[in-house]
Amino acid sequence: xxxxxxxxxxxxxxxxxxxxxxxxxxxxxxxxxxxxxxxxxxxxxxxxxxxxxxxxxxxxxxxxxxxxxxxxxxxxxxxxxxxxxxxxxxxxxxxxxxxxxxxxxxxxxxxxxxxx
Length: 116
Fold this sequence. Notes:
Blueprint: H1 8-115
């Protein structure tokens, strides 16, 4: 039978060595996971950079399209204002004048009926 005798400091040194080995293994796993995470983040950043560059490249197209829409809307508003002015001049004002004259004529007939 083999017997081992150790002193307290040798046992403490053995425990410290085991903890250092365990800590080294845990640190290596942590650094590997961190490395994989950083690779994923770098890929995501590269993809986002491409998307942002594409958006920046298309800003001129988007703003010119928006200005075309605004220009067309301004033309349509001007046409509506012109149409409303023409309706007022050619339809509403003559209609009001005609109704005013008709009202005056009817007023004359009503007075004649009262007097008769």
